[in-house]
Amino acid sequence: MNLKKAISLSLKWILICALIGFFSGSASAFFLIALEWVSQLRIHNNWFIWLLPVGGLAIGLLYHYYGKSVVKGNNLLLEEYENPKQTIPLKMAPFVLIGTLITHLFGGSAGREGTAVQMGGAIADQFSRIFQLDATDRKTLIILGISAGFASVFGTPLAGAIFALEVVYFCKISLKSSILSFVVAYFAYYTVEFWPVHHTHYSIPVIPEITIENLLWIIPSSILFGLAAMLFSRSTHFWGSLFSKNIPYPPLRPFIGGIILAFTFYYFNAAKFMGLGVPSIVEAFSKPNESYDFLLKILFTGFTLGAGFKGGEVTPLFFVGATLGSALSVFIPLPIALLAGMGFVAVFSGATHTPIACTVMGIELFGIESAVFIGIACSIAYLASGSVGIYHAQTVKGIKFHLYEKFKRNKLDDL
């Protein structure tokens, strides 16, 4: 390749990154502003919870009659990455945006990363037609969309870029994709910074010395974080399977699920588990949580998403990890904020099989001083969380996959 052609190709991809970053970042900015608005509207109108079944029915009807091609969500992005077939429909972006806002407006327990990632992926893949890209370059576009969506919605560009690469790690990744993932992440991040959007800030004010005793305390807590991630993943899949088997007509699933959720939230005074739960996450860094809070969040989020409501899993995973770490501070002699921060990213690491991205995210959110504790927690939780994650289309291999396969074979041999 001559110099002129190389420069031309580089400029083309920088332009693509800029466009994806701008459009995905702007979509995420609009989404975050709208999400804050509907969340505040729900908080000031408690009776909205009784409209959750109606909202669920609306989501179900929308996807059943007009959105069957995009109902798989994040799993569709992963499937198209591994085996590119056809361009992801652009309607994925408005459908998941509307579905997520309805879910949060009426009190469903869900997150936001899935929405941003799906919007980013759908927007990015449209450039395959505009620039007439082949299947290999389409893979790069999907990575760029995931990177832009994740980086913009959480305000963590390094983690977003690495997450996009690590979530498809055991499929083929090109050097070009790796470099461009970072480029687009920063384009998307600074686009959101341009809009009047503010990300939640967390801090770990006290970092203990790195001693053998302190490092040993990380092991049991991180194993628990990994087991919580496993329970979260299996819970979401369980409820999804249960609704699918017992309610043949898809739009009725979120309708019936909404009825059950509305009565449960109201009669058990469980408002803290509605929506994102960010106030509870922030509180977990300074005040010990009840030992069962993380379990209830797993239950409500798994049920909400399994019933067919829209949203993401990552912020609920942050909730689960932070509240579990906060509760463990009663028994483990480490600072409460450190344990909450470790759980915040470690449970996410286990549920998505992305320990490197989660370690980097912890450093971006909490500071480099906590890097050793965060890194060890993410690695152990990743190993302890089993081979099933929140994305069933994700290819999982490597040391953890082989360890669990060997364990299952030995268990069958014993029988």
UniProtKB/TrEMBL annotation:
<feature type="transmembrane region" description="Helical">
    <location>
        <begin position="215"/>
        <end position="233"/>
    </location>
</feature>
<feature type="transmembrane region" description="Helical">
    <location>
        <begin position="254"/>
        <end position="274"/>
    </location>
</feature>
<dbReference type="InterPro" id="IPR014743">
    <property type="entry name" value="Cl-channel_core"/>
</dbReference>
<feature type="transmembrane region" description="Helical">
    <location>
        <begin position="177"/>
        <end position="195"/>
    </location>
</feature>
<dbReference type="InterPro" id="IPR001807">
    <property type="entry name" value="ClC"/>
</dbReference>
<feature type="transmembrane region" description="Helical">
    <location>
        <begin position="318"/>
        <end position="351"/>
    </location>
</feature>
<feature type="transmembrane region" description="Helical">
    <location>
        <begin position="47"/>
        <end position="67"/>
    </location>
</feature>
<feature type="transmembrane region" description="Helical">
    <location>
        <begin position="141"/>
        <end position="165"/>
    </location>
</feature>
<feature type="transmembrane region" description="Helical">
    <location>
        <begin position="12"/>
        <end position="35"/>
    </location>
</feature>
<feature type="transmembrane region" description="Helical">
    <location>
        <begin position="371"/>
        <end position="391"/>
    </location>
</feature>
<dbReference type="InterPro" id="IPR050368">
    <property type="entry name" value="ClC-type_chloride_channel"/>
</dbReference>
<protein>
    <submittedName>
        <fullName>Voltage-gated chloride channel protein</fullName>
    </submittedName>
</protein>
<keyword id="KW-0472">Membrane</keyword>
<keyword id="KW-1133">Transmembrane helix</keyword>
<keyword id="KW-0812">Transmembrane</keyword>
<dbReference type="Pfam" id="PF00654">
    <property type="entry name" value="Voltage_CLC"/>
</dbReference>
